[in-house]
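Re: weekly structure request thread

Next one in the queue (232 aa):
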Amino acid sequence: MTILRSLLCHLLLLAIHQWQSKSTLVGAATTTTTTTTIRGRLRLPDDSLLNSTQVMLNDGEYSTYTQRDGAFVLYNVLPGVHLLDVQSHTHLFSQVKIQLLEATETDDEMGLKCIEYAYPGASKQAIPHPLILTAHAQYQYFEPRQGFSIGTIFKNPMLIMMLFSVGLMFFMPKMMENLDDEQKEQMQKQMELQSDPTKMLSSLWGDMTNDPEAEAKKSIKGGSKARRSKRE
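Done, posted below.
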């Protein structure tokens, strides 16, 4: 009886162990079939070599680095909607929204749809897998240094003022020759007033304070005195 009981216990333990191993194999098989691998390549417009660049899904949930030829691989990606972003400090690459559908009984492979966004807010465009992403532009962190140009010299306001003053000095004598004697005297007075600011201010203040009626009376009195002197 004891021998039979021990045999039955051993058989029961073997059956339980086999059942557990089968369940783990089934679970492993299901996990392997529900993940996929995303492949792609980064390239430059001139086909030059690109430094090792980080490629991320969902802000770091999956991450990898490109190889020497720009190729990259992301392993064991679960089903769902993912956003692929290229973390490049030198070039601008598109963002790609990747939709992974779970495999069905008739189709062992997962459905994969890729939509490219050249920049946030741009129109979407479906692209095939493996991904081929070409850089749109290169980042410019510094402004290019401007070279020497003669046009920049003539745009200087100090130089313009100097040329204008030289032109006045050259043309003023010719303009003075064509003026009458009275106009020349007025010009000389104005130049004297400009050379002495106090005289200019006093003349301006006198013009503002003088009354035209008083000046007319003074002119009439001066004319009557001149006539009396002539008569005498």
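The CA atoms of residues 150 and 214 lie 60 Å apart. The first strand starts at residue 36 and ends at 43.
Next request, please.
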